[in-house]
Amino acid sequence: MSMSNNEKKQSKIGKLFRRMFNVREWIDWSRIKAGGEYISQGAKQVYIDTPKLPVESFAEAQRRLKLTDDSILIRGRALLRNSLIMLCLAVLLFCYAIYHFIWGTIHSGILSFSLFILSMGFSFRYHFWYFQITQRKLGCTLNDWVRQGLMGKKS
What is the spatial distance between Cα 94 and Cα 120, in angstroms, rounded to a whole number? Predict the structure, then answer.
């Protein structure tokens, strides 16, 4: 069962043609497929109910992590300091973005505004963690943070 010279040439030409015009490689099919699977898994996590895990109390977490009251106080101060630094950075970035929008450099303004949003997110995160430490309660809600952390109302 040997192949004739004509069949060998056709298979070599076919291999060369497939190698030159490899559309799957051009569009990076493996990456597109992996991205689609990632989005699919994310959608499943969002829309499919998962059993809720038991919420750990602050005292249990403190014992598990072997934290003293002094170390918790130090960490709380560090979180507040980080939150304020990020807030100051956000204000500067917002002013810088406005400056770029006024002078017509739209792309730089958009970039600066994006960094402003990012630094506001970090500021929120650090302050939320600080709020949970000061309240000595894990699993606080956004509503708790707004009412008690920002508005100063008692629970």
Answer: 10
| Rounded-to-integer distance, Cα 58 and Cα 75, Å | 14
Distance CA 144, CA 123 (A): 17
- How many angstroms separate the Cα of 101 from the Cα of each of 107, 108, 144? 9, 8, 36
Nearest to 76 by CA among 120, 136, 147, 153: 136
For 25, phi then psi, to 5°, come to -70, -40
The one-letter amino acid at 141: T
Give the C-alpha distances (Å, rounded to integers) separating 44 from 2, 94, 132, 141. Answer: 53, 36, 30, 24
Contact predicate 138/57, CB 8 Å: yes
Residues 150, 110 contacting (CB under 8 angstroms): no
List all residues 6 or more positions away from 112 whose beta carbon is below 8 Å from its beta carbon. 93, 94, 96, 97, 100
pLDDT in tens, 32-84: 888 889 888 888 877 777 677 777 788 888 888 888 889 999 999 999 999 99
